[in-house]
Amino acid sequence: MVYETLQILKEQLDNYLDDAGLGKIVVLENLALLDSGSDKAKNLEGKVIISLLSVQEESTLKNLPTSHVVNNKAEYYNPAVNINLFFMVSANCDMYSNSLISITKTLEYFQGKKVFTAQNTAYNRSNVSMQELDDFKFVVDLYTPGFEVWNHIWGTHGGRQLPSVIYKVQLLQVDRRKKQAGTELITKIKGNLKDIN
User: Fold this and answer.
1) What is the pTM of this model?
2) Would you give the DSSP letter of residue 191?
3) DSSP for residue 38
4) What residues does each domain of the chain span?
5) What is the DSSP string of 78-132?
6) How far apart, in whole angstroms, are the C-alpha atoms of residue 3 and residue 34?
7) How far apart are CA 147 and CA 139, in angstroms?
8) How many CB atoms lie within 10 A of CB 96?
9) CA–CA dist 2, 45 (Å, integer)
10) Distances from the Cα of 85 to the Cαs of 63, 67, 97, 132, 162, in angstroms?
């Protein structure tokens, strides 16, 4: 669900920036490649880059029930993992002014659309990973770290700072739905009860 979510956001933002006259410039890529000197770094020139920063477990939903009743039998599963994603949108455009415009348009887009569902979002269903994606809902919120955290983020990604913004995606569920055990339910109690007094 991590890839699918970021791919949907990439497609949506790319369409918005294209409609705004900036062209199809959004890529989903590891920002650390920018200063790596590799051939892939050239693919990031003149682009707006969406890059995953972190995955965080939503601990408040950890204790949900893990058993279900199906045809009078109890089935037990491992609990689903509920996660939040932190991703960064960085503008590596040819001119600094275009980078600032791209970040402004990014802010505009996510201010106008925070909730993404299968009903309100058009995405490329021909992508093999997206074909099994039936229903989804997630919320995108602006996340503003302090200067020290920004320094660590950019230091981790090579040191060169670009105009950028960070968003938090809530709430994705990862669930393999692999049954761990099953058992019959107790439906009747037989026998006589005796008064122990």
Assistant:
1) 0.80
2) S
3) S
4) 2-182
5) PPPEEEEEEEEEEEE-SSHHHHHHHHHHHHHHHHH--EEETTT----TTSGGGTT
6) 20
7) 25
8) 11
9) 25
10) 20, 27, 29, 21, 21
pLDDT in tens, 21-68: 999 999 999 988 887 777 888 888 999 999 999 999 887 766 666 665
Rounded-to-integer distance, Cα 85 and Cα 142, Å? 12
Using CA atoms, how far apart are residues 105 and 35, in angstroms rounded to an integer? 25
Encode pLDDT of 14-29 as tens digits. 999 999 999 999 999 9
Comparing CA positions, the residue from 2, 8, 19, 7 lying closest to residue 115 is: 8
b/e 24-52 (16+ beta carbons within 10 angstroms → b): ebbebbebebbeeeeeebeebeebbbbbb
- Polymer length in residues for the chain: 197
> What would the two tokens of residue 163 be?
């105009």
* Total Cβ atoms within 10 A of residue 20: 14
180 and 76 in contact (C-beta within 8 Å)?
Answer: yes
Sheet holding 73-77, edge to edge: 67-70, 73-77, 179-184
Rounded Cα gap, residues 71 and 73, in angstroms: 5
Beta-bridge partners for 81: 174
Does the CA dihedral 24-30-32-38 come out positive or negative? Answer: negative
